[in-house]
Design brief:
Elements (H helix, E strand, L loop, with lengths): L1 H5 L3 H81 L16 H15 L2 H5 L2 H15 L5 H21 L11 H22 L4 H4 L1
C-alpha cells in the first residue's frame, strides 16, 4: 500500500484530497442550508398559527363587544317601553286615591278598572313586566273586583296599590325614592313584595271572580 501511495504523483494526491474536502464541504453546506430552510419554514408556520390565534381572539372580542352593545341597546329599549306601559297601568291606580274612598269609588267603577287592569296584563305591558309585577297587577285587579264599598275592601285595594307601585319601581331599578338599588336590595325587595302579595291573595280568595275578569 505504501509503495502504491509512493507511486502516486503528489499533484494527483493533492487533487484527490481537495476533491474529497470539496465533497465534505458541499455536504456540510447543503445540510446547513437545509436546516436553515427548515428553521424558516418552522418560523413561518409558527407565525401563521400565531396570526390565526390573534385573529380568532380579535374576532371573539369583537363578537362579545357586539353582543354587549346589542344587550345594552335592547335593555335601554326595554326600559323605555316599560316606562310607557307602566305609566299607562299607573293611571288606573288613581281610583284608589285616598280622596276617592267612599265617594267616587263605587263597586261598579272598581270592577271597570279591574277589567282595564286585566286588559293591560295581557297586553305588551304584561309581556314586558317581571313575574312579581304581573302578580302584583293581578292582586290589584282582584282587590278592585272584590270591592264592596266597605272600609276593609278599600284597605285591601290600597294595600294592593302599594305592592303594585313597589313592583313597578323595582322593575325600573328604582329604590324607595329616585335613587337606584343594588342587585341585593332588589332581590330582597322582590322577595318581600312576593310574600306580601301571597298574603293579600289569600285574603282576597284569588281563584274566585277576579280570575274571570
Amino acid at each position: 500500500m505504501k509503495d502504491f501511495i509512493k507511486g502516486i504523483p503528489w499533484a494527483v494526491l493533492i487533487a484527490a484530497v481537495g476533491a474529497v474536502w470539496q465533497l465534505i464541504y458541499a455536504y456540510i453546506r447543503d445540510r446547513s442550508r437545509d436546516k436553515e430552510e427548515d428553521r424558516k419554514h418552522a418560523f413561518e408556520r409558527a407565525k401563521f398559527e400565531n396570526q390565526k390565534t390573534l385573529e380568532l381572539i380579535r374576532f371573539e372580542y369583537e363578537q362579545r363587544r357586539w353582543r354587549e352593545q346589542l344587550a345594552t341597546q335592547l335593555s335601554l329599549k326595554h326600559v323605555d317601553a316599560r316606562l310607557t306601559e307602566y305609566a299607562h297601568l299607573w293611571s288606573y291606580v288613581r281610583v284608589a286615591a285616598k280622596h276617592n274612598a267612599g265617594k267616587s269609588l263605587t263597586p261598579e267603577k272598581a270592577k271597570d278598572t279591574a277589567a282595564a287592569v286585566e286588559t293591560w296584563r295581557y297586553s305588551s305591558g304584561g309581556l314586558l313586566a317581571e313575574e312579581i309585577t304581573r302578580d302584583a297587577a293581578l292582586a290589584f285587579q282582584g282587590a278592585l273586583w272584590n270591592y264592596d264599598a266597605s272600609k276593609e275592601g278599600y284597605n285591601r285595594i290600597r294595600q294592593a296599590r302599594r305592592l303594585l307601585r313597589e313592583a313597578l319601581r323595582s322593575d325600573l331599578g328604582l329604590g324607595e325614592d329616585s335613587s337606584g338599588q343594588t342587585i341585593f336590595d332588589a332581590a330582597e325587595r322582590r322577595q318581600k313584595i312576593k310574600e306580601d302579595i301571597t298574603v293579600l291573595q289569600k285574603k282576597l280568595g284569588m281563584g274566585t271572580p277576579s280570575d274571570a275578569v
